[in-house]
Amino acid sequence: MSKKVLVLPGDGIGPEIIAEAVKVLNLANEKYNLDLELVEGELGGAAIDKHGVPLADSTLALAREVDAVLLGAVGGPKWDTIEKSIRPERGLLKIRSELGLFANLRPAILYPQLADASSLKPEVVSGLDILIVRELTGGIYFGTPRDQVVLENGERKAFDTLPYSESEIRRIARVGFDMAMVRNKKLCSVDKANVLASSQLWREVVEEVAKDYPEVELSHMYVDNAAMQLVRAPKQFDVVVTDNMFGDILSDEASMLTGSIGMLPSASLDSNNKGMYEPCHGSAPDIAGKGLANPLATILSVSMMLRYSFSQAGAADAIEQAVSDVLDQGLRTGDIMSEGMRKVGTAEMGDAVVAAL
Amino acid sequence: MSKKVLVLPGDGIGPEIIAEAVKVLNLANEKYNLDLELVEGELGGAAIDKHGVPLADSTLALAREVDAVLLGAVGGPKWDTIEKSIRPERGLLKIRSELGLFANLRPAILYPQLADASSLKPEVVSGLDILIVRELTGGIYFGTPRDQVVLENGERKAFDTLPYSESEIRRIARVGFDMAMVRNKKLCSVDKANVLASSQLWREVVEEVAKDYPEVELSHMYVDNAAMQLVRAPKQFDVVVTDNMFGDILSDEASMLTGSIGMLPSASLDSNNKGMYEPCHGSAPDIAGKGLANPLATILSVSMMLRYSFSQAGAADAIEQAVSDVLDQGLRTGDIMSEGMRKVGTAEMGDAVVAAL
Ligand SMILES: CC(C)[C@H](C(=O)O)[C@@H](O)C(=O)O
Ligand SMILES: CC(C)[C@H](C(=O)O)[C@@H](O)C(=O)O
Asked: So where does NAD(+) get bound (chains A, B) (predicted)?
């Protein structure tokens, strides 16, 4: 029986980069007999325009049915003035939560061909290869109560709640340790245990899980120190596991160390490795529709999908190799352009990867 | 009548760096007829050892009485296994909260003499001069309820609360705008308004306060983007205002951009400019007692104290100039050492500043 992939182009540059990623996916599908069937839907602004909400029930039902989701990006100024509860981001948060995609994997890899693009000194980042494992369906993103109220004295007050349960921490810690096992066996758990109750439990549970992974060298770091160490000496890290909010901040910081966020894919997995795959970058409304966007992060997200959700390591490797090949050929979109290279648009870059594959 | 300064050496390298800062303060006191009287107390581990708690009531009473507090640093492995509620950091959080020191000013300045120390490329950080204004007595650091409980099913669960009231946001926003007015008139307010209720109120109130500062160019940025932009192009910022937790993370990240966190002072002010002054770095237990620590951040904290709490801009400028002079002379502690410079210890560096002053 064929496996299904739901494709959600989303907003801004989403449709353009997804078009290239789908070319690559279709070719891999054929070449490796993957027997994948693609269906399309809307998320974010595109869903608001069509269905009035950023994630329609019918799309969510489809997402539950399929084996993997490929997402472009969501959001843009067009929907910035819309009522908060139905903004584009809400669709993204809802699909993560409803599908139980608690494990967000965000690699920060420096491509040797793009070493110059980093704002850090070459010796600080050369060979950088970190994996941030971010908890994605708990913590302050989804905790209740959360509200804005007016106090008796007429003053407004707002509050959020940051909750974590043992089982939520345990399952994401396991992902962290599992990833460390197939990499360099070093895991750094990041929290703020000197201040937060939730972080104290986080640290306790991570310590408990560590007993099952005697080969992994575990360390703990406060989030403020982690934000510093990522700038000072990022290569000290192998796998970093952290909560939803800290992971949001640190994974963006880490991805920017490479200077080429247009190259970085991500995976969000549930407990059965069903996943949603998307580039780390956003919908870049300023360059949307111009054929300028870099499709490589989305193409590499296809590779992650084949690896994690379909256990097709061979096809995944081949796509990564093809991306590396086009970089070797000197092709660059505007965001990663440097002297002596050949500047290409979105479609030309996608076609080059297809050709290399 | 003479003004009083409470000196809290604290733990680790605290006593060593404070000794040098006090030399400088005493000289400035004499030279500029400041009529300051110094009293000493304990905070953190030192207070635990002497009083059994990280901040004794008598010390807190003294802190309320004086006009400014000069702090070294707190914490160390010796007190890591102590019961959580009386760890060294608790003393720090308590004194901030009890004295109402809601405005934490953390400059991130690149000293031209130390330009090489940064892990970022020179062109990205040369001339860097950012001020992070962090809310220090509210938010998730102090919000209740916060607890760890055991659920009916036997599972542990922990939670924290992130509250902000209109008046808390308004007063820190004013500090941000006031600082922008005496600098380059650019303020960036950092929040996570696409996810958090508290951040939505934060943004609303900052917008309201902005009406009183038509000359200041205000922007808003999500915290994940701010963590990226600090790495990508930090010079785009002038003043950044943000909440307690985001400020903890971003100010540490920003300070590390300069490569010389041993150089950076900080001020924590109440609504009458009474303040506590301390270096941005920690207690560095690994080098404590060896005479290796860099006293310049603490000496520059004295300068901030004279500027903000005692309105002695002349004396403050003179101390900053003296620090710049010793750097020009080529003196360096280990943390900022580079080729061709002269390596000195804590006391020698302090003495050099005294001589330059
Ligand atoms: C758009 C936003 C809600 C989202 C998040 O904060 O999770 C984004 O920043 C991300 O990291 O995927
Ligand atoms: C020691 C710790 C509680 C403190 C904080 O988080 O505020 C420190 O990191 C700081 O920034 O002064």
From this structure: 76-89, 282-294
